[in-house]
Amino acid sequence: MIKALVKAVILLLVTTVACAKPYNVEVILTKVVAQKPVSADGDRIYVDIAAYPASGSPQILREPMFPMHWLTKELPQIKNVKLWEGTIKDEDSVLLVFSLIDQVLPTLDDALLGSARVEISNRNKQLQTKWDQPKYADQPRVDQIDGKPSYIMYGESAQYAVDFAVKINP
């Protein structure tokens, strides 16, 4: 009787572990539109990415990598840029903050145009995403469009439309 019970418990544990589904996830910058640049002659744009996994160490990333940036006139060609990728294990999550920044000069403070954040979680074997705005004291005005991963960012008297997407890879 005890042997059968032990076998049943082991089978249950193996089945539960086998059913736990990790998700390989990417967050994509689908487009950036300079509706009103900071400078009349154009801006130098990049994205800072802060990743806060529920388990593990935080990361700070940048796209494109320093010292690179995107010029305002190049933005129509900037599409589907992978900003972050990772694996979200069962009952795990990650909080990501994406900050659009105008690179002033390498020796001066860069200008924050706005930020968006997403929490990606794997709960009950289902991937869930929740997009919103960070609650920073110095956060420039940011409008989220209908709860979608689409934002209008107004920092430094500018206006940028930014769209994101979450992609699940097999």
Structural features, described:
By secondary structure, the chain is mainly β. The chain has one helix spanning 2-19, and strands at 23-36, 44-53, 59-63, 70-71, 81-88, 93-102, 111-123, 126-132, 142-144, 150-153, 159-169. The strands form two sheets. Strands 2, 3, 4, 6, 7 and 8 form a six-stranded antiparallel β-sheet that branches. The protein is elongated, with a radius of gyration of 20 Å. The model is unreliable at 8-18 (pLDDT under 50).
The proportion of strand residues reads: over 45%
Global shape:
elongated
Cα radius of gyration in angstroms? 20 Å
The portion of residues assigned to helices is 10-25%
* Topology as a string of helices (H) and strands (E): HEEEEEEEEEEE
Distance between the termini: 42 Å
Briefly note the structural class of the backbone: mainly beta
Mean pLDDT: 88
In total, the number of strands is 11
Provide a count of the helices.
1
List unreliable stretches of 5+ residues. Answer: 8-18
Main sheet summary: 6 strands, antiparallel
